[in-house]
Design brief:
The complex is a heterotetramer, with two copies of chain A and two copies of chain B.
Chain A: E1 2-4, H1 6-20, E2 24-28, H2 44-48, E3 53-55, H3 60-72, E4 76-80, H4 91-98, H5 101-104, E5 114-119, H6 134-138, E6 144-146, H7 151-163, E7 168-173, E8 182-184, E9 197-200, E10 205-209, H8 212-223, E11 228-232, E12 235-237, H9 241-251, E13 254-261, H10 266-277, E14 286-291, H11 309-320
Chain B: H1 32-57, H2 71-79, E1 86-88, H3 104-111, H4 121-124, H5 137-149, E2 156-161, H6 168-179, E3 184-190, E4 193-194, E5 197-198, E6 219-223, H7 227-242, E7 248-253, H8 272-280, H9 283-294, H10 299-322
Parallel strand pairs in B: 1-2, 2-3, 3-7, 6-7
Antiparallel strand pairs in B: 4-5
Helix pairs in contact in B: 1-2, 1-9, 1-10, 2-7, 3-10, 5-6
The structure holds thiamine diphosphate (2 copies) and magnesium ion (2 copies).
């Protein structure tokens, strides 16, 4: 296995899948000639030609809207949104069509559309380059959502998303794009959707996270005197409740960590599932460590916003004190 | 300062005369039987629409978007399509599938809020009815672009209204279509109203065809009440598309002589006098008079066409009403090919 | 006090507030000449003229986007989205600008923009006329959200929203627009944001809901043998945690009810708040009764989707059995 | 089929000659001191941009969107504005506030990711920097519309790029502006690139000024490297706006001779030869040579202007670097005038 960065793993997945299936098309802003602002699509245009790796006009709703039509014509579009915040213009197509069209045809037609985008903060960028919009996507019926936290999962989950018969949004933590490196299986590699990953075994408290926050939780776990289990949700929908509830049953204590603004974020869904299905296991409150209900701050103070290992550990200690 | 400049075809194209000063024209390649087939299409749509308004009053269907007076736009353009070409309708063209052999009960079921209103777009090459304004324009552009990439000759046609041209989705779809040289016809039904909003409050452009200029595509204006003019303009646009030259914007000028939908009361905003005049000039009668002047149409054919259409509707509504209530389980069907385990939790 | 329908109360609020403040402008599709598809804005154009009750072009992002500029010029725009599903095109302006612009000016400028729209199902309408999108709005920083369940609150919350210095989204349950009628105070009437309402007192179980689901919960409460308290959240942000937690402290049992699709809906936030702050009060799981993670169905089967008093009562009995 | 028809001003307007075949023109109402003031504006912007690239290399500011070669568009158009007129800049015009007296340290702080980069738009009549493409166009339209409703004479100008014209937000904003007769200038910086995407992949329109036709507003093309042509076209558009005639679309044609931003490596997609040629013709030098031919510019003035600009930048970066790190509490400030109690919970 080769050591790759997360963005190299994404690039690997795109090459491997496009090699495998001639109907896969990559489209987006600057994905072709320049290979993408993060180089995630580098080499695809040369390898597969400008018709299968398309530099589109600057219009996100147009990208996703034409992808719906392309899917109807038999293509498997993989749309890149250049930054998560610039995916907001395509929310309308996503909610009104991408998540509904199969249903609208009584299941007769499939819309195997993948929408991939960088997500999250920690990269010291200007405004609207560090949002965490996963909750908008997860709440949308007909749409699946995955967020890798390792290079191997970035390749495997993207491959699974591209192969999935349903629309899937894949959010790639941009703070992890270039480091750390990790082992990535060569050739075809699929990590099935709907399976969480126990990133660290523990017995006293469960730290529940996804994306870049998994790393934060692993650091918090190291800092804790107690034995912390870290569960990487990996797929937000479909959700692997089994793995999550098993961990909570074991530890009886849980801290949910999300970078996005707290209110009605996906962490609330995780907490709600636990409050409904593991209430008898709980030995303390379900705590959340999250971003705040304010815009992601200017980057000189972004560390005050993004959950830190210290904040996670502190919450874990609070729940352990119960 | 730049004087505003307009596209070439500012005149509104017509084929059908008025039986007086303006002479009748003819359309190449339409022989007598074709002219009559087109007539039957018109009558079928008119009958569907008039019956649906009655069915609504009788409580047999729900709210319904009336297309009375829009039949020429729908029938004329569809008649120009090849069988393989895809139609992307709005709610205003809800019954356009009938021209592709879709049973009326399917469309009636849609308006009855019954899942039997679902259909497989591939069966009729008719996409699902687009309820949100203009968001299906990129779908049509994408479909046509995708067909071109596959080396197929199939084109697409998207139907939308004058109000739809104000939406970003129209703009992005039209631009993608032009840039990707997508073989698609953007057919704008300019009935001069968006519910209660007049065209004058929608745009300052002198014509909607002017919108084409900004996309580098041709813009054509036709009389939307002239089924032959619509046919001709669409046929030309399709020929252009198939030749690889890309999309065309067709503005079909008409006037909405009916409420926006059965739920709408236009008395608050429209001018009854104007509506009266426009109704006198409605498209089915115009075509009938044209065919009679040509000596092609007889009372027998009229009777037969109306009878046949009416029969189809009678069977359609009967079939729709005979449908069993939907299986409650259909709530959970079809949203996902591979549903999340929690999909039934609520 | 006069008896009014909910939509008449909305219309009353708009007349009263526009009378009071000459800077208030109503804008949207068909709000002027026709008075709105639900007649919520009837009479405003005649009374205040076409410049203060504007029939806009058909472009939701344009409506909200120009409202931002109008606010910068000193106006107080009240934007109508004709149906909730047709507000999706304006999510981009809402997330990237409406909720962020005050912050972006370091608090120097205010954006007192109100966005009101009908919401929810039960009206036997075609596709995309019966959605419940509140979660998209509540999750957006800088934006407040209110949902009335009575004519009086519809008037008072809308007035509060219009007067609020921050952007507020007001969702009006369309199934309640024309019935039942209710007492509505004449003249200026303000229901402060951030205050929940105990719609029914009870001691054994708390039914937590908002909008049309309040009526559903009241019916369920009637059907229950136990004593159910019904809390009408009224304002989703700012959330009145005090009233909610007081009720849970009293009953120890709670059922959260929401019409929107379950996954990452606002009900999850309510459950998470309770699981975090009332864990020691809970005598059973926090149950949710919600719509499903599928598109709102065709109206012949919408009753299979929208939570019913029966489903709520059944959940209440389950938690009461703990 | 409609031949595509184009707006009147397809020629690119120029005032400045080439010192050889093409003679120099003059602009009414600009006396010597005005011409030199405009020169100082250009030098200030050029100096800001060149210093910023250096500061970035030195790690003193973060990623930075270079506007080298765009100074004439920004200075020429801003020079035509009345003091009361509002500017709606994109990231490409991040430093345009300097022409309204904004201290450089404010803009530098913005690029340093420091909240001191916030400003009160009312203080300078400069809206916040728009990071998302085209979404500020409706803001400018709304502001201008609102000012007109108040009976004020203030206009607005929105700056955006060629790529921005593909966004629905541009379309909706332009249409609202036209329909509401908003006194706004839509100033499109057509530098022929959207990061790595060439204009040819953005639109099939022959010119971006053609987009104006579909909104029923005039479309003008000017040489974006000719500061006087940009001034003149903007002045005419503003006069038109103040007269109540509504918006104008101005396409300022230039060429991006620098990377999109400091993070961008254009070697993968651009043609160095073309860039070389374009750089020779860059806007500040062109204006300098013009002023010298006019006999208005002396070496002393050049020195003085550059010195003054450099001094402002030195002070600016010093002031920016002297700023204390932001109070962490600012994270919670300003999102709400009246914050929800839970705003600090995370
Ligand atoms: C995005 C969106 N906004 C609003 C509506 C509500 N609506 C339905 S029809 C209509 C008017 C459409 O006018 P036009 O485009 O001219 O088409 P017509 O109905 O006249 O055929 C509106 C505003 C909608 N369906 N979708
Ligand atoms: C809505 C949105 N999509 C994508 C981006 C990322 N992006 C930043 S600049 C840019 C290119 C803009 O090109 P153009 O409009 O021509 O302006 P220019 O940068 O050339 O001045 C892109 C795609 C963005 N900022 N906003
Ligand atoms: Mg219309
Ligand atoms: Mg550009």
């Amino acid at each position: 296995m080769a050591e790759k960065t997360l963005v190299e793993a994404v690039n690997d997945a795109l090459h491997t899948e496009m090699e495998r299936d001639g109907w896969i098309m990559v489209m987006g802003e600057d994905v072709g000639r320049s290979g993408g602002v993060f180089r995630a699509t580098a080499g695809l245009r040369d390898r597969f030609g400008p018709d299968r790796c398309v530099d589109t006009p600057l219009a996100e709703a147009g990208i996703l809207g034409t992808a719906v039509g392309l899917a109807m014509a038999g293509w498997r579009p993989v749309c890149e949104m250049q930054y998560e915040s610039f995916s907001y213009p395509c929310l309308d197509q996503l909610i009104t069509h991408v998540g509904r069209y199969r249903w609208r045809t009584g299941g007769a037609m499939e819309f195997p559309i993948t929408v991939r985008m960088p997500t999250g903060g920690g990269v010291r960028a200007p405004e609207l380059h560090e949002d965490s919009p996963e909750a908008y996507y997860v709440h949308t019926p007909g749409v699946k959502v995955a967020i890798p936290s390792t290079p191997a999962d970035a390749k495997g989950l993207l491959a699974a998303a591209i192969r999935d018969p349903d629309p899937v949004v894949v959010l790639e933590p941009k703070v992890l794009y270039r480091s750390p490196r990790g082992e990535v299986p060569a050739g075809e590699h699929v990590v099935p959707l709907g399976k969480a990953r126990v990133a660290r075994e523990g017995t006293d408290v469960t730290l529940l996270a996804y994306g870049a926050m998994v790393r934060t939780c692993l650091a918090a776990a190291e800092a804790l005197e107690a034995s912390a289990e870290v569960v990487d949700v990996r797929t937000l929908k479909p959700l692997d409740e089994e793995t999550i509830l098993a961990s909570v049953a074991k530890t009886g204590r849980v801290v949910v960590v999300q970078e996005a603004p707290r209110v009605a974020g996906f962490g609330a869904e995780l907490a709600a599932v636990i409050a409904e299905k593991a209430i008898l296991d709980l030995q303390g409150p379900v705590l959340r460590v999250t971003g705040y209900d304010v815009p992601f701050p200017y980057w000189t103070i972004e560390h005050e916003y993004v959950p830190t290992p210290e904040r996670v550990a502190e919450a874990a200690r609070r729940v352990l004190a119960y | 300062m730049a004087a505003q400049v307009l596209p070439a075809e500012h005149g509104v194209r017509r084929v059908i005369g008025d039986g007086e000063g303006t002479p009748d024209g003819e359309v190449e390649g339409l022989d007598e039987s074709a002219l009559l087939e087109l007539y039957r299409d018109l009558v079928l749509l008119r009958t569907y629409d008039e019956r649906s308004v009655v069915y609504h009053r009788q409580g047999r269907i729900g709210t319904y978007a009336i297309f009375w007076g829009h039949e020429a736009i729908q029938a004329g353009s569809t008649f120009a399509l090849a069988d393989e070409d895809w139609i992307f309708p709005s709610y205003r063209e809800s019954a356009i599938g009938l021209l592709r052999g879709m049973p009326p009960e399917v469309v009636l079921a849609w308006w009855r809020g019954h899942p039997a209103g679902w259909w497989d777009p591939r069966e009729f090459r008719v996409a699902s009815i687009a309820v949100p304004i203009a968001t299906h324009v990129p779908h049509a552009a994408g479909y046509a672009w995708g067909a071109r990439l596959k080396g197929e000759s199939a084109c697409a046609i998207a139907y939308f209204g004058d109000g739809a041209t104000s939406e970003g989705a129209f703009h992005e779809g039209a631009n993608f279509a032009a840039v990707m040289r997508a073989p698609v016809v953007l057919l704008c039904n300019n009935n001069q109203w968006a519910i209660s909003t007049p065209l004058s409050a929608q745009t300052r452009a002198e014509t909607l065809a002017d919108k084409a200029v900004g996309y580098g595509m041709p813009g054509v204006r036709v009389d939307g009440g002239d089924v032959l003019a619509v046919y001709e303009a669409t046929a030309e646009a399709l020929a252009r598309a198939r030749s690889g030259a890309g999309p065309t914007f067709v503005e079909a000028l008409t006037y909405r002589c009916a409420p926006h939908a059965t739920a709408d009361d236009p008395s608050a905003y429209w001018d009854p006098g104007r509506v009266e005049d426009e109704r006198k000039n409605e498209c089915v009668g115009r075509y009938e008079r044209y065919l009679r002047r040509l000596g092609v149409l007889t009372d027998e054919i009229v009777e037969e066409a109306r009878g046949a259409a009416l029969a189809r509707m009678k069977d359609g509504i009967a079939a729709a009403e005979a449908m069993p209530p939907p299986d409650p389980d259909v709530v959970f069907a079809h949203a996902y090919a591979d549903p999340p385990p929690a999909v039934r939790e609520g």
